[in-house]
Amino acid sequence: MQKLGLNQSLQQKLSPQQIQFIKLLQVPTAELESRIEEELEINPALEEGDDQERNEEAPEEQRTEDSTEDEYKEESGSEDDLDIKDYLQDDDYSGYKMQGDGDDDDDREMPIPMSSSLHEQLMDQLDFLGLDEKHYAIGKQLVGSIESDGYVRRELDAIVNDLAFSQGIDTTLEEVEQILKKIQTFDPPGIAARNLQECLLLQLERMDNGHDIDVAVAKKIISECYDEFTKKHYQKIQKKLDTEDEDFVRDAVELIIKLNPKPGGSSISTGAKNQYIIPDFILTNNNGKLELALNSRNAPELRISRSYTEMFKAYDKSSKKDKKLKEAVTFVKQKLDAAKWFIDAIKQRQQTLLRTMKAIIDFQYDFFLEGDETKLKPMILKDIAGMINMDISTVSRVASSKAIQTDFGIFPLKYFFSEGISTDSGEEVSSREVKQIIKDIIEAEDKNKPLSDDKLETILNEKGYNIARRTVAKYREQLNIPVARLRKEM
Q1: What is the mean pLDDT of residues 248-258?
Q2: How far is CA 467 from CA 280, 305, 422, in A?
Q3: What domain range includes position 307?
């Protein structure tokens, strides 16, 4: 049976301004400029310029206007007095910011180096094979199927179907494999392999001159004892090769380890711009006093367009209230509001970034003063959120994609957050310190008998760190250190 009733509930919803602020807060400095350019392009009511200079130049009577407009006055000396009627006659605003405006010195200072991609290199080598039209088309399809690390992971049967459906080329699996074998002779060695085993064999084939015994043994290990090699079961390899000489196997294994598992990565850069870390904050030590500043790119000069403000005023003074005029001014009002919200969000972003970073510096003051990693204290998002009286999610957005430049290098903010480990003395130390100790212990271990996680736990407990084996395993994995079995050497 259905019943009608009233239900009162309290819900929290984000306003458009809050959503815009949240999105801007998590944008790193490297992307902020493009985000601002995007907003300038879609909102003609937003302009680049110094709001303070505009207020100084504006007549006194213009500063006493409505508070919404007062904060965003334009320069009074503008010669482009736009009439509302002119606005109604022309709806094309694409030229308000012409391409090429602005300073392009940055682009001139960092030219993009000329280089060829892996695909271009392989296509150049394919041209030298002198293939007929059909086989060249097959080779081109195969080269296009090579991934950035140099492997062909798409099944050859699927490539046969691709050729048939997309290019109308009727071929066979054997014919495609024949062309693939030719491509596998290209540089870099190991290119176009279908798996790691084939990649290593291709590189060993290129090294084989018929006289090097290490190469011959290495080929036999990869072709006949591949599973044992990946698991580092060297005694089983010796048994399969019917030898008791450890040096016989060790030299071959060392040769295999030096091979390139990702041949595509050894090629010349694709020509894309190098990715640089642009710090959001700059911290300097001025005779023992730490001084924090925002990267200047985080403080763009933005203001409201005077022309659009005048349009809005013209409507209020106009005696005609026709429908077309109302629709136009509604559009203008929306653009003015959007510009104001965007400027406010940028300013709020700056304040939040500085508040959060200052709190992190206060918490980790000893580290920022000397750069000693052992001075880092256990710190979680909740600690900083409590210091600045903000939500944990806000701190997380700041820390997730921001970096700071110090006298000791550039660090991502996530670097300063770590869990705490208690010692026998009751002191809390950073997990980063414990990770460094684990790394030092493993580097000094006997590689013939590497330490298990249980033994690492015992050693750390003897040093006074109260840590469980599963935590040791987690930290070891975070350090990208394999388990003891895979660290074993002959």
Answers
A1: 84
A2: 35, 61, 8
A3: 16-58+66-88+300-340
User: pLDDT tens-digit profile of 423-482?
Assistant: 666 666 777 778 888 988 998 888 888 889 999 989 988 888 888 888 888 888 888 888
- What is the number of domains present in the chain? 4
Q: Residue 58 and residue 311: Cα distance in Å, rounded?
A: 17
The DSSP result for 29-88, as a single string, is: HHHHHHHHHHHHHH-TTEEES-HHHHHHHS-GGGGGS-HHHHTTPPPTT-S----HHHHH
Structure tokens at 42: 């879609």
Q: How far apart are CA 30 and CA 34, in angstroms?
A: 8
Name the residue with tokens 């869990």. 419
Burial state string for 350-378 with b = 16 or more CB within 10 A and e = fewer than 16:
eebbbbbbbbbbebbeebbeeeeeeebbb
Radius of gyration, CA atoms only, the chain: 33
In a domain, 4, yes or no: no
What is the spatial distance between Cα 359 and Cα 363, in angstroms, rounded to a whole number?
A: 6
Asked if residue 447 is part of any domain, the answer here is yes
- pTM (2 d.p.): 0.50
Pairing of strands 403-406, 281-286: parallel
